[in-house]
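retry 2 of 3: previous attempt timed out while embedding FE2/S2 (inorganic) cluster. Reduced batch size to 1 and resubmitted. Inputs unchanged:
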Amino acid sequence: MMSNILNINNQEYTVSDDLLTMPLLKYLRESLHLTGTKNGCEMGLCGTCTVVIDGKATKACRTPLKRIIGKNIITIEGISFTNGKLHPIQQAFVDCGAIQCGFCTPGMVLSAYSLLIVNDNPTRDEVAKALRGNLCRCTGYQQIIDAVIEAPKIAKKMKVKLIAGCLQ
Ligand code: FES
Ligand code: FES
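retry 2 succeeded.
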């Protein structure tokens, strides 16, 4: 029998058969207590629940566990450094004033992360396109786009790699 294994932030979790239809968002927040992934709408509309699955930004509220068995999932908890330092994308959000209430921020950061995996020098349009599934009711988006553009430079300043070097 194949076991239902998920890799979340570089740790393996075995999911029992009765949980296979549970959305990843509920599993993260209620079973694993990884509450950095936010529940905004549970309908796939707001992007606050965005995580990175096999490199792609994905809405956890619309993703049943059975669809992601064997995949690699990164949540906001998984991109911080083990020494407690912010990830350069998070630092960029702070430096650029891209955070107000902060509710959209984990999802925004992970959408940015998945873009920067494939393109570490994006244009403003490319950033806007990558973030179009993430709603922010506070910032007006410009500072968020600024932050994503700035993140690769901040990684250089921090002398860390933008993608490697994290828990993932
Ligand atoms: S909570 Fe998933 S898109 Fe809103
Ligand atoms: S900072 Fe409040 S929703 Fe984006």
